[in-house]
Structures are given as structure tokens and as C-alpha cells.
């Protein structure tokens, strides 16, 4: 015997996928809805491709196929273990640690400090309205078109919306 | 949009409408050529509040000269996207630009903590403590306290790597509020490894909330112990999710000795240990753990199912029976079911019963199989498939009356079903040559009545296949009788032989052999496999020889 006190771990071969069951393979509760199933499947595909999980890609696809078929799903439910209790205690613990859809996510609130710009005015040059008005050269209106002065007056009195002016064209 | 706030998620619908209106207006200004940094910043904030993180980031990137706040905003977006490494990088840049910002410092601290960078966090805490005076007065004290507690914990973490964990004085007078804040932050990190490490340190560090003794570790608080246990359980589940059963088991095993007072954590622990043991084929351990879990929660159907399945995997089907029965009794609305499948639990009970019946049928335990199919039929009294199985099992169990009654019900459910005529033949008790002859004639009749019906043909082939060994047995019995007579004739002196009786016996035997020969002739066209044909031909040749022998003996 060597001096090393580390225990030797003999890893036995795990059960065939039919006995492990699709729920454990995809890390799903047996009551999972379609959206959750798809999310877990996609996550595990990534894991399998990156070698982060001990499950072959083939088994991941098999598990999703089984769960997507109602009859096969129920049969699989009858024949596979439950990682959580009926009350979902483990799911509650996981939620406390920010685990959502099988992934742990940060839930602490970062401190935000936005600039106070409520009264900010952009430094744009706005011409003086009176000066502009004074600079306008009013053309002489022929006496045979009497409605023109009236129309021009109405036009001038309309409210000015700078955003409505198409400056591109 | 002034002041310091918590980076929040998008607000109400009316807020959302206002943000959209503001964003559109600012967007138009930018499209019109406005490159004002503040306009772009306001656009980014409006988009951020709407939850449009990509648009917000795009607006921030257009700001030609980013200041610390702009980089902070980018970091906050990264945090929302859970891009921790990128957020850390951006916060570090913002911190370089503005080392007087408590918000940047705090966010950087927690981001590094989330990433498990203990030393980097420790280096930041003195700066955060200096800047805490910039916070609103009412929260300053609380913030300072939290930072000091965190500092103490991280110091222990840093030193704990090379041996036992020393006790930091501050820990000895930690208040309940301090502890709760610390636990909340650790739980909110979203990194199971970091949370596990911190909680383990906190648990092992010892004295919490007991200010009497500052030198020696005392009992840790229940909250911390439970938080630690929960963290380990959640981490183990994440390993189980990757099918790393042994790793999960190794992580969980030390908790068995912890003897938590909390029933929920104990229950989850025992169940997970059971699952891991079962998956690594250590069925005895799995049974032990599931039994202990059931002791804690005797009315949890999932635990009963786990135990029943483990007995099955172990090959001890009868031992699983009481747990399956309890599972069926407890299967009610408390059990979660997928929302999109109506009457799920009813289907589950039915399939489970059917599955167990099949398992028992495989082992030819007809009584147990029959019991489960009867219960399945009780759930679906008009399901023909279930009734067919019930009929077959009644037949196997030699309960002819029940089988006949079930067949009647099947005929009512599916009138004119050709297969049921074949089922009728199952009820014939085949004992002698006459029964075999009658059976074969009936099979032939039904086949002619329903030509090209695959299911009828298949069943006919099976039935004929079952008859062939019986024919062989009967032939052997006749041959034995004949051999006995011939032996006696050969061993007795001639004057002691009653030749008329011998001839009489031989004639009887010849008649029987002839009948058997006729049956083989009828059987031959009904079989489909070459193997069966060969057996029947061999049998016919054998019978011919026996018949010849009978004749030679005066038949």
C-alpha cells in the first residue's frame, strides 16, 4: 500500500440509457413543459460537443425524442427515477441559488449610476425667430390674385414642427 | 434619469411606452446626424430600460469619447447578459477612469466574487470601504458592515487553502442581519462553485452570532449550515445533470455525517444519494438510502417509485410490489404533471400497471401479471388492448370462465374481429390427438374465412407452432407403448404370449399412428417456417416406420 491516503474510486459502468431514462439524461423534472425540454436539450447538445458531459450526443437526442412523444414519455416516466421529491424541494433549493432552466445565473442587483441629463439641452445653434422674420423679403402680390395674402398669412400662423421637416430630400 | 439606482429590469407598460417614445425621438436625432455624446447616452439608457440590450450597447459604442459612466453602463449590460468576464473587464476599465465611484467599485467587487477571484476581491475591499461614505447616510453603516464581514470571510478563504481555517475575530460578533445579508449575496452569485466554497468556509469558520467567546469556534448557526447543505445539494444536482453520478456521490457522501436538523435537506440528500448509487449499480446502497428517505416522507409517491424501480433493477421484482402499490395509492393531484398532457397521472398509473404486468409475464409469473392487468383494466374497462392481455393471462392461469367472459366483452367492443375467432381456439384444452385434429381443422377454417389477414395468419402460425411439440410427445408415448409390447414379445417364451391380445394392441396403436400421420399431413400446409416443416417431415417419416412395425407385429 502506498502512503497516499486518497481513496481509490472505482467507477462502475452506468446503466443503459433506457434505465437511466430521458428525464435524468436531460436533467428534467417529469412535469417539464415543451419549452423547458427544448432548452435543456439544446444546453446538453452544447455540453456534449464541448465534452462537458458524460452523455453521448446520440443519447441526448434519443431522450428528447422519447419525451416529445406523449406515449413514450409516460412509459419512460413509469420506468425512471426521480431526482427530486414530489414537493420539488430540490428545485426550490436550486431556485434559491439562481438556477433557472438548469443553468445558474447571477441574481445580485448591480448598482447603477446614470448621468443626470433630464435638463440637458444639446448645444445646437437655433436662429433668432425675429431676425429670421425680419430678413424675409415679402414679394409684391399682384392685385389680380386677392386670395394669396390670406393663404400666406394662414401658412405663417401654423405651428412649426422642426421634426416634421424633411431635411434629407 | 439621475442618481444611483439598482440596475433594474424593464418597468411597467406605461414606462415602456414612454421609453419607446423617448428612444424614437433620440434615434431620429441621431439619424439626422446628431453625434452628441449625451444624446447617444440618453438613447442607450432608454433602450436599456426597455430591455433592448443590443440597441443600448450600439448607442453606447457610438459615443466617441467614453467616460467611466459610459463604460459602467456597458458593464451593466454585460452583467444583464450574464457575460461575467466581459463585465469584469469593462468594470476594471471604468474603475481606472474613475476610482472615486462606489458603484463601479462595488459592481467590480461582486463580479470578481462571482468569478471566484478571492484575492482580487480582497484587494478591492479597502477602496470600497473608503468610498462607502459617498453612499446615502442611512445605508452607509450597513454597507460598511457588509464589506467588513465579506472581507473577513475572504481572508479565511484565502488562508484556508493550506490547512485549517483560522477564526477571524469579526466573525465572533456577527449579527443575524449580517449573516443574512452575506447569505443572500452568496446565494445570488449564480456560481455554484463559488457559493459552495464560500459557504463551506463560513460553515467551517465556526462562531457566528455568538458574541460570548471570541477565541474559540463555537456552534455555527443553523441558517449557515442549511445554506451550505443546500449549496452542496444543488451542486450535486448539477453534476447529476451531466451524468457524473460518482462525482455527485463523492460530493454528497460527507453530508451524511452532518446530521442536519432540517427534514427537507435530509430528504433531498437521501434521495440524491439513492439515485447516484442506483445509477452506478450499487443497488443495496440505493435501497438503504431510499428506505431512509421514505421514513422521513412516507407519503411521497416519487420516493416509493424510486425504491420500487431499484428493486426491479436489482432483479428482485417481488420486493418492489409493496412500493409500487404504495406509489399507486399516493398518485394524486400533489404529483406534478406536464401541463400540456390532460389526465397525465391516470395515464401514468395505467402504463405503470401495464409495464409491471409485462415484467411479470416475462418471468412467467402469471398470477402477479394477471393482478396488474386486472387493475389496468379497472382503469380502462373498455380498452380492447388491455382486455386482450387480460384474456391471454386468464388463459395462461387456466381461468377458462374468466377468459370466456373477457372474450365476450371483447367481441362486443370489436364485433367481427377475425382474431377473436382464433382466441376462441385458445380456450380449447388440447390433451389428445382428437383435440389437436379439431384445433387444426378450426385453424384451417378460420384461415380460409379470412384470407390475407396478417394478424390471423400470424396467430395461426403461432398456434400450430405450439401444437408441433405436443404431436412429438404423443408420438413418443405411442412408440413407448409399442416398444414395451415388443420387449415382452421378445423376452417371453412363445407359449406364454397371447398373440390375439398382441395383435389387438398393435391394431389400436396402428390406428393411433395413422391418426397422428393424418394430423401431420394437415399441419404441414399451415406452417410457414422451414424449421417447422423439417420437424413435421421427420415426424411423419418416424410415424411411417412405426406403422410398418405395427403391421409387422400383426396389426
How much helical structure, as a percent, in the residues of chain B?
over 70%
Uncertain residue segments of chain B: 1-9, 208-218
Q: Identify the CATH class of the domain at 17-82 in chain A.
A: Mainly Alpha
Radius of gyration of chain A using CA atoms only: 36 Å
| Overall geometric form of chain B | elongated
Distance between the termini of chain B: 119 Å
The secondary-structure class of chain B comes to: mainly alpha
The residue ranges of chain A in which pLDDT falls below 50 over 5 or more consecutive positions are none
Number of helices of chain B: 25
Kindly identify the CATH topology of the domain at 17-82 in chain A: Helix Hairpins
Radius of gyration of chain B: 41 Å
What characterizes the major β-sheet of chain B?
none
Helix-strand topology string of chain A: HHHHHEEEHH
CATH architecture of the domain at 17-82 in chain A: Orthogonal Bundle
The oligomeric status of these chains comes to heterodimer
What's the total count of β strands of chain A? Answer: 3
Write down the secondary-structure element order of chain B: EHHHHHHHHHHHHHHHHHHHHHHHHH
| Mean residue pLDDT of chain B | 87
Structural class of chain A, by secondary structure, is: mainly alpha
| Residue fraction in strands of chain A | under 5%
Amino acid at each position: 500500500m502506498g502512503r497516499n491516503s486518497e481513496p481509490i474510486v472505482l467507477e462502475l459502468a452506468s446503466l443503459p440509457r433506457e434505465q437511466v431514462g430521458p428525464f435524468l439524461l436531460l436533467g428534467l423534472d417529469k412535469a417539464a413543459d415543451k419549452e423547458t425540454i427544448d432548452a435543456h436539450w439544446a444546453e446538453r447538445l452544447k455540453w456534449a460537443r464541448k465534452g462537458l458531459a458524460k452523455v453521448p450526443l446520440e443519447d441526448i437526442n434519443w431522450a428528447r425524442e422519447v419525451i416529445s412523444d406523449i406515449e413514450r414519455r409516460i412509459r419512460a416516466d413509469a420506468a425512471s427515477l426521480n431526482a427530486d421529491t414530489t414537493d420539488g424541494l430540490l428545485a426550490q433549493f436550486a431556485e434559491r441559488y439562481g438556477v433557472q432552466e438548469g443553468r445558474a445565473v447571477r441574481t445580485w442587483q448591480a448598482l447603477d449610476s446614470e448621468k443626470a441629463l433630464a435638463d440637458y439641452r444639446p448645444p445646437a445653434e437655433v436662429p433668432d425667430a425675429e431676425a429670421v422674420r425680419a430678413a424675409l423679403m415679402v414679394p409684391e402680390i399682384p392685385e389680380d390674385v386677392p386670395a394669396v395674402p390670406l393663404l400666406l398669412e394662414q401658412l405663417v400662423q401654423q405651428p412649426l414642427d422642426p421634426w416634421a421637416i424633411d431635411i434629407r430630400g | 434619469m439621475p442618481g444611483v439606482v439598482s440596475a433594474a429590469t424593464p418597468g411597467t407598460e406605461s414606462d415602456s411606452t414612454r421609453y419607446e417614445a423617448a428612444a424614437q425621438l433620440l434615434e431620429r436625432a441621431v439619424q439626422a446626424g446628431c453625434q452628441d455624446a449625451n444624446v447617444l447616452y440618453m438613447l442607450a439608457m432608454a433602450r436599456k430600460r426597455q430591455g433592448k440590450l443590443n440597441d443600448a450597447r450600439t448607442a453606447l459604442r457610438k459615443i466617441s469619447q467614453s467616460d467611466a459612466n459610459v463604460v459602467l453602463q456597458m458593464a451593466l449590460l454585460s452583467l444583464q447578459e450574464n457575460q461575467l468576464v466581459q463585465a469584469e473587464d469593462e468594470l476594471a476599465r471604468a474603475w481606472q477612469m474613475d476610482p472615486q465611484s462606489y458603484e463601479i467599485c462595488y459592481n467590480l467587487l461582486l463580479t470578481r466574487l462571482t468569478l471566484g477571484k478571492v484575492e482580487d476581491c480582497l484587494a478591492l475591499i479597502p477602496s470600497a470601504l473608503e468610498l462607502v461614505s459617498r453612499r446615502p447616510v442611512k445605508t452607509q453603516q450597513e454597507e460598511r458592515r457588509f464589506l467588513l464581514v465579506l472581507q473577513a470571510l475572504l481572508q479565511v478563504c484565502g488562508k484556508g487553502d493550506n490547512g485549517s481555517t483560522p477564526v477571524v475575530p469579526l466573525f465572533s460578533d456577527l449579527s443575524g442581519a449580517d449573516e443574512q445579508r452575506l447569505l443572500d449575496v452568496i446565494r445570488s452569485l449564480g456560481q455554484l462553485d463559488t457559493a459552495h466554497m464560500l459557504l463551506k468556509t463560513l460553515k467551517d469558520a465556526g462562531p457566528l452570532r455568538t458574541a460570548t467567546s471570541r477565541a474559540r469556534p463555537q456552534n455555527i448557526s443553523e441558517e449557515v449550515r442549511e445554506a451550505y447543505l443546500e449549496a452542496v445539494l444543488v451542486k450535486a444536482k448539477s453534476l447529476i445533470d451531466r451524468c457524473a453520478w460518482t462525482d455527485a456521490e463523492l460530493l454528497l457522501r460527507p453530508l451524511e455525517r452532518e446530521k442536519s436538523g432540517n427534514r427537507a435537506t435530509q430528504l433531498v440528500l437521501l434521495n440524491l444519494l439513492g439515485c447516484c448509487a442506483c445509477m452506478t449499480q450499487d443497488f443495496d446502497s440505493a435501497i438503504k438510502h431510499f428506505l431512509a428517505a421514505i421514513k422521513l416522507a412516507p407519503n411521497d409517491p416519487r420516493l416509493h417509485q424510486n425504491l420500487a424501480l431499484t428493486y426491479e433493477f436489482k432483479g428482485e421484482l417481488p420486493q418492489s410490489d409493496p412500493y409500487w402499490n404504495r406509489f399507486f395509492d399516493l398518485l394524486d393531484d400533489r404529483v406534478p404533471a406536464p401541463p400540456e398532457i390532460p389526465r397525465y397521472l391516470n395515464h401514468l398509473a395505467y402504463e405503470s400497471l401495464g409495464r409491471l404486468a409485462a415484467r411479470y409475464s416475462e418471468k412467467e409469473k402469471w398470477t402477479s401479471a394477471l393482478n396488474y392487468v386486472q387493475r389496468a383494466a379497472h382503469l380502462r374497462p373498455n380498452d380492447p388492448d388491455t382486455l386482450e392481455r387480460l384474456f391471454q393471462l386468464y388463459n395462461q392461469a387456466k381461468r377458462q370462465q374468466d377468459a370466456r367472459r373477457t372474450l365476450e366483452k371483447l367481441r362486443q367492443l370489436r364485433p367481427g374481429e377475425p382474431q377473436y375467432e382464433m382466441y376462441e381456439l385458445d380456450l380449447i384444452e388440447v390433451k389428445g390427438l382428437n383435440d389437436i385434429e379439431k384445433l387444426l381443422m378450426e385453424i384451417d377454417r378460420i384461415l380460409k374465412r379470412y384470407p390475407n389477414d396478417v394478424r390471423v395468419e400470424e396467430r395461426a402460425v403461432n398456434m400450430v407452432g405450439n401444437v408441433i411439440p405436443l404431436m412429438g410427445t404423443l408420438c413418443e408415448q405411442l412408440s413407448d407403448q409399442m416398444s414395451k409390447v415388443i420387449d415382452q414379445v421378445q423376452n417371453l417364451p412363445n407359449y406364454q404370449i397371447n398373440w390375439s391380445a398382441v395383435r389387438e394392441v398393435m391394431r389400436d396403436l396402428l390406428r393411433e399412428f395413422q391418426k397422428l400421420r393424418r394430423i401431420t399431413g394437415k399441419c404441414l400446409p399451415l406452417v410457414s417456417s422451414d424449421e417447422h416443416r423439417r420437424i413435421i417431415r421427420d415426424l411423419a417419416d418416424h410415424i411411417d416406420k412405426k406403422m410398418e412395425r405395427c403391421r409387422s407385429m400383426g396389426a
